[in-house]
Each structure stands twice: as C-alpha cells, then as structure tokens.
Amino acid sequence: MSKPLIVVTGKNGQLGSELEILAPAFEVQYDFLFVDRSQLDLLSNESIDNFFSVHKPSVVINCAAYTAVDKAETDREAAFQINATAVGKLAAHSAALDALFITISTDYVFNGNGTSPYLPSDTTDPINYYGATKAEGENFALANNPESIIIRTSWVYSRFGNNFVKTMIRLMGERPSLNVVGDQIGAPTYAADLAAAIMHIVAQKIAGNKHSGIYHFSNSGAISWYDFAVAIGEMTNTACSINRISSIEFPTPAKRPHYSLMSCESIIYDFGVDQPAWKHSLRLCLTTSR
C-alpha cells in the first residue's frame, strides 16, 4: 500500500525549509514532495492546474506566500494572485482529491485595535493590502474547500530566509545603536515550532481528527518588536544599544497593527500541539544557527 503523499509549496521559504528538515523523521509514514516556483508557479493558474493533473497528493501544505508587506501596497496584482486567488485554487484541487488542505495566514488580517488576544472567530479588518490579500485567501480556501485548515501566525523567523531576527543580528554587528518600534504588540513564531505543529496536525487528521477551520499559532508570550530586539541582543552578547521608538517615528508604506496578539487555545485544545515560550524558541534558533 502506497504512503500518503504530502505536497509542500514554498520549499525555499522559512516554513517550507523547516518542514523539509522535519520530513526524514516522518518518511516511514509519508512521502513528501517539496516544490518551488519552478515546479508550481502560483502566479499562473495554468501551472496550478497542470501540477494537479500530474500529482495526486493526500495532503497539501501551502507555505508559499507573497510576504513583502510594504511592496504589496503597490505590487497588488501579484500579491492578490499568490495570497488569494492561488490559495483558492489549491483548496479547490485539494477538495477534488479529498486531500487535506492546510494554508498559512497572518495576524495582519486584524486591525490592531484589540486589547485582548484575538480569537479565530473574531472579525477580520486588515489595515494594509498584504493583510487584505491574506484575508481573501482565507475566504477563498473555505469557500472552495470547507474542510480547509487555516493557521494564522505572526512574526515568523528562523535560520532561513529574511526575517527580523537575522536583520537585527546583522544590524547590531554594523551599528553602535538601533531604533526599534516599541508600541506594536504581538508574539514571535519560530518556524520550526510551526512546522512541528503542522506535522502533528497532519498526523491527527490522518488518524481521524475531524476538526477544521481557522486556527492561531505563535509562540507563547506578548512582546513588542523592541522587546524582541533586546532579547536578541542579550542572547548574542551585542554591544549595540537598542532604543525604543514609536510607530510614528518609523513610518512604513504599509500600516502595521498596534496589537495583533492571537489566542492559540483552540489549536492546542483541538489538536494537542505544543506551544513553546518565545524566549525558549529564540534561544534554540540562535543556538542552531551558529
């Protein structure tokens, strides 16, 4: 009997890379196919259709995304195609194959005016175009495949790709001081922890777990970008001083929500995933990266 095939899009991104590292631990249970744009181009609906005419996965994990938040304000067509239209098509193809579809969304679907952790059921109200495309991607996924699992996450980092942690380490090595925004509150997510959570969910679903819908996942804790930078500096023994500034002092083309902390209770309750503390995971990432 053949093993279930798991297709992972966005193989070169942070999450895709972490899933590829995890894959050998699951090779007894599953076959994996990690794909990048050369094999599955989400900018092309024809490429998506052609891919699924050849491959018949049991699980599709969509890690591909247009993540350039500021660039999305002007590069709207590409951002919408990748984050919304293509997600809907992947969901539809998964539904046609009776395959599990998991896709990743973002805390930026919220407006940031909240004062307590957002629930998966809370109304979305994005304040930038990137967030709007991700919210539409959620809608398209659920419309085309009601059994989709959508995982909103936040402030993702890893040893791979471009992210806040790697940027801070580089800048701390180049400058005597840094200004970092201190009035945007959320939670970081170590991509390796998210990858582990996803594989746990896959195993649960294949074993018969009936839950689906929208979930939240991040590391536990509530911090600002300033707090995050200070912790990075402390763990890397930097001599660079970190200064707290306001969002007004650091304008960006795309607005960021001031508060985007998300409640992860439902994903823990429904699937039993682990949610490590943010400082523990940051230290682990920095240790692994050296």
Topology overview:
Layout: E1 5-9, H1 14-22, E2 31-34, H2 45-54, E3 59-62, H3 76-96, E4 100-106, H4 129-144, E5 149-153, E6 156-157, H5 164-174, E7 177-181, E8 185-186, E9 189-190, H6 191-206, E10 213-216, E11 223-224, H7 225-235, E12 241-245, H8 265-271, H9 278-289
Parallel strand pairs: 1-2, 1-3, 3-4, 4-5, 5-10, 6-9, 7-12
Antiparallel strand pairs: 8-11
Give descriptors for this structure:
290 residues; alpha/beta; Rossmann fold; 6-stranded parallel beta sheet; two-stranded parallel ribbon; 9 helices; 39% helix
Low-confidence region ranges: none
> Strands of the largest sheet, in order across it?
2-1-3-4-5-10
Total strand segments? 12
Question: Alpha-carbon distance between the termini?
Answer: 42 Å
Percentage of β-strand residues: 15-25%
What's the Cα radius of gyration? 19 Å
- SS-based structural class? alpha/beta
Number of helices: 9
CATH topology: Rossmann fold
The average pLDDT value, as a whole number, equals: 96
CATH architecture identity: 3-Layer(aba) Sandwich
Give helix % range.
25-40%
Q: Encode the helix/strand succession as letters.
A: EHEHEHEHEEHEEEHEEHEHH
Overall geometry comes to: globular
CATH fourth-tier homologous superfamily: NAD(P)-binding Rossmann-like Domain
- CATH class equals Alpha Beta
Q: Summarize the biggest pleated sheet.
A: 6 strands, parallel
